[in-house]
Design a protein that fits this description.
Largest sheet: 2 strands, antiparallel
Order of helices and strands: HHHEEHHHHH
Number of strands: 2
Distance between the termini: 60 Å
Helix content: over 70%
Number of helices: 8
Radius of gyration: 29 Å
Low-confidence stretches: none
Structural class: mainly alpha
Oligomer: single chain
Strand content: under 5%
Shape: elongated
Length: 177
Amino acid sequence: MLLNATGDAGAGSRRRARAGRAEHASTSDRDSTTTTAWSRFSRWRRQRPFLGGLLIALGGVELFFSGQLDIGKIHVQLGIEGLQATIIPIVLALLGVLIVTMPAHRIFYGVIALVVAVYSLVGVNLGGFFVGMLLSTVGGVLAVAWMPRTSDEAGGVPAGDPALRRADEGADERAAS
């Protein structure tokens, strides 16, 4: 009788365990197949210099609106300066978009954005009254300084450099002895 009761209890607990595993598997399958739009965007954003490109584009938009100002009876946009007040912000906004969409060319586009942002100091109303120039300059620095993740998850050593990996392993062996 005791064996029979234990056997039934064991079978019931095994059934409950199998049901729990099946429920957990279906939940994890559901989570992996239907990821949210925010998680997909976050994964995409982490693979590129998003903040740098965004700041450059915002600096370009700010420069555009500061270049189109009318202060009382003074019209700020005249002659060749008017062309600069239109071209420089468009170039900066375009560079910001290019940095986000093509992260392999981030250094080239970032350096151009830095040069154009500094030139906007004399070309577009003191760089959009310093705000647009500062936004674009910080964005350009962030874009140039951004590096894609290429390190191993465990050791932090770049995946493609065997010399660093050997040096790191040697340091671990020396520390262990």
